[in-house]
Amino acid sequence: DGTVELFESGAILSYLADKYGGLKTSKQRAERNAWCMWANASLDPIIFIETPEGRVIDTGLRGNPRAVQRLDALLGKRTWLVDDAFSVADVAVASYLLYVPQFFPDLDLGRWANIAAYAQRCANREAYAEAYGDRVSALVRARCDGYVANAATGAQEGKKFWPF
Question: Were both Cys, which of 59, 143, 156, 158 would link to 150 (CB 3.0–4.6 Å)?
Fold first, then answer.
């Protein structure tokens, strides 16, 4: 709105949620902010392994990180992260998950069936296509569809190594 300058994605999402998200209580803000902070502090370093200079060299999703297992279990019980309604919490977490098909096309999120379905739901939102454009959204949607199909058939990459 021209009056606030922010540079951190979590701060930007928090600001947008406060200004436009209809959050009326500190509890509502805290529940969503917790996910924004978790995405930046915990999920980012799992998804993007970087050199000290900040160059991405791989992803920690080739393993089976405990935080990802917990996220998968949680998403098995709900559609969205907070109050079963899409919110800035989902924008924060899904933004990292939806980078996976772009940066690591050989990785299959289907080994985490609930995360795969969640990523698919997020990628299929009209707002995602508007934000990222037709080319990127089509690529990400197609990869997410593949993740979900692989999860359903048990054909995901690394299945023999990941009995979870």
Answer: 156
Partners of 82 in beta bridges = 85
* 67-119: pLDDT as tens digits: 999 999 999 999 999 998 999 999 999 999 999 999 999 999 999 999 999 99
Contact 38, 46 (CB under 8 A): no
Contact 159, 111 (CB under 8 A): yes
The string of pLDDT tens digits covering residues 21-73 is: 778 888 988 999 999 999 999 999 999 999 999 999 999 999 999 999 999 99
- Encoded tokens for 10: 């979590």
Residue 104 CA to residue 99 CA, distance in Å, equals 8
Residue type present at position 86 = F
